[in-house]
Design goal:
The chain is mostly helical. It has a domain at about 1-100. About 70% of the residues lie in helices and about 10% in strands. It has five helices and two strands. The chain has helices at about 1-25, 30-65, 70-85, 90-100, 100-120; strands spanning about 120-125, 130-135. Strands 1-2 form a two-stranded antiparallel ribbon. A hairpin with a 2-residue loop joins strand 1 and strand 2. Helix 2 runs antiparallel to helix 3 (about 70-85). The relative contact order is 0.09.
Length: about 160
């Protein structure tokens, strides 16, 4: 995990510098600078608009007694898109704009969800008077239990 984060935080700025240098060579310094400012401003406005729309939908679903889990994830992705768009550079702007497109955002959410599901398995164990729940990674257990929808338990005292 550390090495992935290290590579991300070192390779992304290097890639941004390379892309900005290439664009600067081809169209000039001032147009490149204005392009970065324009993509950031337009992207931030789009992120704000989509974020407010998502917030309204979350409020509507909450008022109707529904769990707005999907919209909350959309809101998180829009927030990440806004951060990427405010980061100077063309590559991060393109990534941010991609997250603002709903079909692309859904694909990213599906991918992230599959990665999380592949890595997590919850085991529930009971013993003695207590109740214990432990989480382990999928690689530690060969068998994957079916999804748990609802569970009830009752605590009994031993006399």
């Amino acid at each position: 995990m550390f090495w992935r984060l290290f590579l991300l935080l070192t390779l992304t700025p290097l890639l941004e510098l390379w892309v900005l240098t290439e664009i600067g060579i081809r169209i000039g310094v001032l147009p490149t600078f204005l392009l970065v400012i324009a993509t950031g401003a337009v992207g931030a406005a789009l992120a704000r608009w989509q974020g407010l729309e998502t917030l309204r939908e979350i409020q509507r679903q909450t008022r109707q007694g529904q769990m707005p889990a999907g919209k909350l994830l959309d809101g998180l992705m829009i927030l990440i898109a806004g951060i990427l768009l405010l980061t100077p550079g063309i590559v991060t702007d393109l990534m941010g704009l991609a997250l603002l497109i709903p079909p692309t955002r859904r694909l990213v959410l599906i991918y992230v969800g599959s990665v999380i599901k592949a890595k997590m398995v919850v085991h529930v164990q009971t013993f003695g008077q207590g109740f214990t729940a432990t989480a382990t990674t999928r690689t530690e257990t060969p068998e994957v239990p079916p999804d748990v929808i609802d569970a009830e338990f009752e605590r009994r005292s031993i006399e």
